[in-house]
Amino acid sequence: MAKERDQNTKDKNLLICFLWNFSAELKLALMALLILCTLATLLPFIPSSFSISASELRFCISRIAAASNSVNSTSPVVTTVVEKPVLDNAVTKQPLTDKPILNNGVIKRSFTGYGWAAYNFVLMNTYRGGVNTFAIIGLSSKPLHVYAHPSYICEWVPLNQSDNRILTDGYKILTDWGYGRVYTTVVVNCTFPSTTVINPKNTGGTLLLHATTGDSDRNITDSIPVLTETPNTVNFTLYDSNRRREKYDYLYCGSSLYGNLSPQRVREWIAYHVRFFGEKSHFVLHDAGGISEEVFEVLKPWIELGRVTIHDIKDQERFDGYYHNQFMVVNDCLHRYRFMAKWIFFFDVDEFIYVPPKFTISSVMESLKEYSQITIEQMPMSSQLCFSGDGPARTYRKWGFEKLAYRDVKKVPRRDRKYAVQPRNVFATGVHMSQNLQGKTNHKVEGKIRYFHYHGSISQRREPCRHLYNGTSIVHDNNPYVLDTTMRDIGLAVKTFEIRTIGNRLIRTRQ
To answer: What angle do CA 227, 322, 221 make, to 5 degrees?
Structure first.
């Protein structure tokens, strides 16, 4: 028994001696653990703008390690090695020399650039335009295209390495008419020689875009894989003009939707146009932040019926372009659905296309099929002045395009127009018309088709009637208006169509 007690005493003494000899290390370890626990506790309260990079963390750890070495070292000479912090995602360049280079008494100065003010090219998507042509849609630095001479080369790289690569010059189209901001929209057309079929055996390959900044003394080129075709995925019959069979007669390509949109105005707009364009039509909307949950609920019944498709494009907000990059968006829509529709219409969600009762949209477009593009005249309607012929109570219960019945007749040199195109004949497009197409354009279709524009009404989350009038000709704020009941007379038919098609699920929609 006494022997066991002596053995326990010896073990305890040995443990105490061990702890005493390494007390400095234990203190340092416990202190480091305390610091880490403190940081973990405080981390959720640190603002999101604060960040620490991996290089800075390595730097701090190296300083702690160096301090530990200096405390525990028994050598009279302490050597501390501190790592030089490495900047993440950066290119290390030599600093400018302190001594300028002298050349015949002239001081030679040098300049070193770091980082990028804007990307050389921002890709949205790439589409086939035929057996030997492609369209690449994206953004590029606006100053680069205004003050420099960037160029593009397209290269097809077959998946089968025994086949030859093919190069051709890319033809750039700037579609935003000078409205770009930091970025401008660029459509690069890659057309290979007419005798060449790209990917003829359908064995697959990749299209590369070589984007050069145009610097005369530097070869700065980004090689970007913009499209990959896997084996047996290309349907070449789409590009055979003798076997055309479009899925839709009419397709709507909408611009970027942003802001606080009115669910009720969107409800009226989609119900009207689904009825107007008929069964073989489709609507493509682009959500740049404007399709809230309430607006989505209005569109949901039509999505379920296969009449509406929504593209979430909010990520493009990182790149500062004109009006949420709407030029890029409509060009992507044009090429994405180019072989799926006979006609593509471009107008906004506060605008309503109209044809007189003696026509139908089918008869009008059939009569204009010799044209690649038509532009449509605007009927400017007030978005504040309402007709109170039915009395105030009934007026407020009517839909927006029923009660906003006063048309602006002030004479102006010109008003904006909207348009429709036969997409197979168009290489790139704009917001109000296309300037890059083959074939004829008709600007005189006023007797057949026009559109009513309720400017700004879509972004008002309130009752639109600010003033009620009962006259056929009025003056408001020194501007003349006339009563135009064209759209008002269609209201009941549109409401009936909505109820018959999707039921009364939207009857409680709010402004």
So the answer is: 40
Concatenating the DSSP letter of every residue in 348-383 gives -TTEEEE--TT--HHHHHHHTTT-SEEEEEEEEE-S
Q: What is the SS3 assignment for 311-341?
A: EECHHHHHCCCCCCCHHHHHHHHHHHCCCCE
β-partners of residue 152 are: 170, 211
pLDDT at 156 over 90: yes
| pLDDT, greater one: 102 or 438 | 438
DSSP code, position 162? T
Question: Per-residue pLDDT averaged across 156-173, rounded?
Answer: 94
Nearest Cα to Cα of residue 309 among 247, 396, 387, 235: 247
| Residues 360 and 279: beta-carbon distance below 8 Å | no
- The H-or-E segment that residue 222 falls in is strand 221-229
Pick from 85-89, 139-143, 332-336, 375-379: least confident: 85-89
Number of other residues whose CB lies within 10 A of the CB of residue 191:
18
- How do strand 205-212 and strand 151-158 relate by DSSP bridges? antiparallel
Cβ neighbours, 10 Å, residue 506:
19
Convert the pLDDT of each residue in 318-360 to its tens digit: 999 989 999 999 999 999 999 999 999 999 999 999 999 999 9
User: Which contacts of 274-277 are long-range, i.e. CB under 8 A and separated by 24 or more positions?
Assistant: 274/302, 274/307, 274/497, 274/501, 275/493, 275/494, 275/497, 275/498, 276/353, 276/354, 276/361, 277/249, 277/250, 277/252, 277/361
One domain for residues 384 and 464: yes
Asked if pLDDT for residue 102 goes beyond 70, the answer is no
User: Which helix (H) or strand (E) element contains residue 275?
Assistant: helix 263-277
Ordered alpha helix ranges (H), 464-506? 491-502
Q: Name residue, tokens 């109820």.
A: 499
57 or 38: whose pLDDT is higher?
Answer: 38
Pick from 231, 211, 199, 234: nearest CA to 123: 211
* Tens digits of residue pLDDT in 213-258: 887 677 689 999 999 999 999 999 999 888 888 999 999 999 999 9
Does residue 385 sit in the same domain as residue 471?
yes
388 with 287, same domain: the answer is yes
What pLDDT shows up at residue 106? Answer: 82
The mean pLDDT value of the chain amounts to: 85
End-to-end CA distance of the chain: 92
The Cα–Cα gap between 180 and 176 comes to 6
Answer for the pair 249, 446: CB distance below 8 angstroms, yes or no. Answer: no
**Based on the structure, what is the number of domains in the chain?**
2
- Domain end call among 238, 271, 287: 238
Return the SS3 of 457: helix
- Which structure tokens are listed for 380? 């400017």
Q: Categorize the per-residue pLDDT at 389 as very low, low, confident or very high, splitting at 50, 70 and 90.
A: confident
Residue 207, domain CATH = 2.60.40
CA distances from 466 to 221, 405, 452, 460, 470 (A): 57, 13, 19, 12, 14
